[in-house]
Write a structure and sequence with these properties.
Layout (H helix, E strand, L loop, with lengths): L6 E4 L5 E5 L10 E4 L2 H9 L6 H17 L6 H16 L6 H15 L6 H31 L7 E4 L14 H10 L5 E5 L6 H12 L4 E4 L4 H6 L5 E4 L3 E3 L4 E4 L2 H10 L4 E4 L5 E2 L16 H4 L18 E4 L6 E4 L2 E3 L4 H11 L3
Parallel strand pairs: 4-5, 4-7, 5-6, 7-10, 8-11, 10-13
Antiparallel strand pairs: 1-2, 2-3, 8-9, 9-12, 13-14
Bound molecules: 5-S-methyl-1-O-phosphono-5-thio-D-ribulose (MRU).
């Protein structure tokens, strides 16, 4: 297999961002070179790069690209360009808070350097983007370690969408838990929901699990209840795009349904996410903005019309799973269990990471 990673920066301050074009998987493993912020914006919008942490890392590098043309300008126009770029990238997708978290970090870095040569600020911004990238890598490994103990040897695990290496710097969040459990010697049987309408589960999750030699079965989303009833699933592990202060968690549309099914079958339901996915400024899931996407994703999926012309379509890309349905949140600092406002506040107080 080609040696490729979800995202990497090539070169120095005048370099560029190379990413796997996830819309081409699993048929083709091809990379896309982004040499300006517009290409990064389009890649995020059209899910060439997707998954909350990966979107954050891509946006941070997108800022580095956006300011390249302003490095020789005076300070005022350099900062103006920075503001325009961050605002522009923030408008690519609304739900994953990692995007806004990463852009805020980039802005904060620059704000501390007022008065310095613009070349120095540009170098500091690239260093910050690289730090965000590297920290995400470490957080994913830690999530894997903390979560692996939750999966009993021989168990069946259901996952929804793709929260793997493709959705992060590498290794993933929900899939990190599965990878780490497998690496510790456990045998697992993973059921991957295909994840309508854009099939991240079918196209990306099964591909990643196959690469790592993990026993994987693809199911359509509407089969999960039957598979649970047949007692094939002992745990559900998913990622998240934004977790409110009370533990309500937004993730790919269909996650809430999977959580309800898990509760009905007495199966633990785990959310794996780094601290960068928490939005403590939002009190509950009711306030999480839910992205609405093009109806054609439902009526013309992958180039084939599957509904009559003119039919009304509702296409929210995410849903919110209430905290009470989540058995534990697995973050890089450990397990948050039970999932409630107090436990989340305590975890952040102890680790001072927001
Ligand atoms: O629309 P997508 O593919 O970006 O949605 C991705 C998900 O919902 C993931 O589960 C989530 O971002 C967590 S990724 C570690």
């Amino acid at each position: 297999m080609k040696d490729v990673s979800t995202l990497h920066w090539i070169g120095e301050v005048d370099g560029f961002l190379r990413m796997i074009d996830q819309t081409k998987l699993p048929v083709e493993l091809v990379e896309l070179d982004c040499r300006d912020a517009e290409t990064v914006w389009e890649a995020i919008k059209s899910l060439r790069v997707r998954g909350a942490p990966a979107i954050g890392v891509a946006a941070a590098y997108g800022v580095c690209l956006g300011i390249q043309s302003a490095v020789d300008n005076d300070e005022t126009s350099f900062y103006k360009r920075l503001d325009e770029t961050t605002e522009y990238l923030a408008a690519s997708r609304p739900t994953a808070v990692n995007l806004f978290w990463a852009l805020e970090r980039m802005k904060r870095t620059a704000a501390l350097l007022h008065g310095k040569p613009t070349a120095e600020i540009a170098a500091a911004l690239l260093a910050e983007a690289r730090a965000i990238h590297e920290e995400d890598r470490r957080m994913c490994r830690a999530i894997g370690r903390h979560g692996a103990v939750l999966l009993p040897d021989g168990c069946g695990v259901l996952t929804h969408c793709n929260a793997g290496g493709l959705a992060t710097s590498d290794y993933g969040t929900a899939l990190a838990v599965i990878f780490a459990a497998a690496e510790s010697g456990k045998t697992l049987h993973v059921y991957a929901d295909e994840t309508r309408p854009l099939l991240q589960g079918a196209r990306l999750t099964t591909w990643e699990l196959q690469q790592r030699g993990i026993d994987t079965t693809l199911i359509c989303d509407n089969m999960a209840a039957q598979v649970m009833r047949e007692r094939r699933i002992q745990a559900v592990v998913v990622g998240a795009d934004r977790i409110a202060a009370n533990g309500d968690a937004a993730n790919k549309i269909g996650t809430y349904g999977a959580a309800l099914l898990a509760a009905a079958h007495n199966i633990p339901f785990y959310v794996a996410a780094p601290s960068s996915t928490f939005d403590l400024s939002i009190s509950s899931g009711d306030d999480i903005p839910i992205e609405q996407r093009d109806p054609r994703e439902v009526t013309h999926g992958f180039g084939r019309q599957t509904a009559p012309d003119g039919v009304k379509v509702y296409n929210p890309a995410f849903d919110v799973t209430p905290a009470e349905l989540i058995s534990a949140i697995i973050c890089e600092h450990g397990l948050i269990r039970p999932v409630n406002r107090e436990m989340i506040a305590e975890m952040f107080k102890q680790n001072d990471s927001q």
